[in-house]
């Protein structure tokens, strides 16, 4: 990658980070613009990269919140169970051979 583009990419990342820090906007969506418009990534690659980055950002934020205030786990325990229990039940219905479950025909109505 050329030095000129490296500067512009760093500048775009700094602007996106500043805007996200000040206003709380989603950084992943702003970085999609940088990945597609400035870096020339395909849309699938840009979305995958952005999601990968967001996963680790959310993990670090969650761990830091727990380290700062460990009692948050006890305060929110019921909400955690409400989220995990249905996910576990849904997972038990997924096929084990890696095939995809087809969507119901009502989902495709009106789409081509």
Q: Could you describe the 3D structure shown?
A:
The chain is about 75% helix and about 0% strand. With about 110 residues, the chain is an all-alpha fold. It has one domain (about 5-95). Helix 1 runs antiparallel to helix 2 (about 25-40) and helix 2 runs antiparallel to helix 3. The protein starts with a helix and ends with a helix. The mean pLDDT is about 75.
Concise synopsis of the structure shown:
The chain has 112 residues and is an all-alpha fold.
Which spans of ≥5 residues are poorly predicted at pLDDT below 50? Answer: none
- How many angstroms separate the termini? 40 Å
Find the count of extended strands (DSSP E, 2+ residues). Answer: 0
The structural class is mainly alpha
The pLDDT mean sits at: 76
Summed up, the helix count is 6
Helix/strand order, N-terminal first = HHHHHH
